[in-house]
Amino acid sequence: MTPVARVRAAAVRLGLPHLARTMEHHTAHAEAEAMSHLDFLDLVLAEELVAREERRFDAALRKARLPHHKTLDDFDFAFQPSLDEYEVRQLTDLAFVPARSNVALLGPPGVGKTHVAVALAISACRAGYTVAFTTIDDMARQLKGTTRLACDLSPYLRPDLLVIDEVGYQPFAHAEASLIFDVLSRRYDKGATILTSNRRFQDWVEVFGDEALTAAILDRLLHRCTVIEINGPSYRRRVT
Ligand code: ADP
Ligand code: MG
Predict the structure, then answer these.
(1) pTM, entire model
(2) What percent of the chain has pLDDT over 70?
(3) N- to C-terminal Cα distance for the chain?
(4) Interhelix angle for 211-223 vs 174-187, to 10°?
(5) Measuring from each residue's beta carbon to the nearest atom of ligand 1, which residues come in under 6 Å?
(6) Phi and psi torsions of 35, nearest 5°
């Protein structure tokens, strides 16, 4: 084996794929620049770390199953003056995730609730948190699919941040509502949740059916919660 082939094989076995791909480029560059041994190692390892971090971020994004990958850079705050840009940007510091508190985004269809929720979820993936995204209807369907005894809540309990999108488009039967309550009450103090809804909290009883259950859900959710109301035009129906 030539030294080049040997180093490449060792890099692959050590889990350094970026080095394996770029080593000849790097060695040529180091010779041309008469780089010191230390600078050379510094460069190679720093690049490998960047490449590894990108792979981790990509994997976290895939696992989160977001509906798209739009960030706040894609968000036109001027279009939505009722939304406090400063407050939204502050949330991207993600202090609410380790604090295990919640964010509720409320407003009519098309105002950007899902967009903002996704942008925060992407920031959380970037920061190394585990994230999962679901609509509340998908969550209810999944939970109902398993029998009550064997009911596996873990996909919704494990992530550091759970995004529950679209609360309010569909009312739930009691069994589903109570499974949703199980998730929220067991996440309480254990993980952060972002929730979006087209309904005001006082109308949630129409979604979850039961007064006491709705009160219990809101009690858990709102104990530590940043509530952001977006009251403005639908971006889907904007005139451009
Ligand atoms: P909601 O969840 O409130 O119904 P969405 O977040 O799905 O609304 O927004 C609808 C569409 O319009 C999405 O494609 C979203 O990216 C886009 N959008 C909404 N508001 C804005 C905005 N202020 N700037 C840029 N795109 C926006
Ligand atoms: Mg939405």
Answers:
(1) 0.91
(2) 97
(3) 63
(4) 20
(5) 70, 74-76, 79-80, 107, 109-115, 196, 235-236
(6) -70, 145
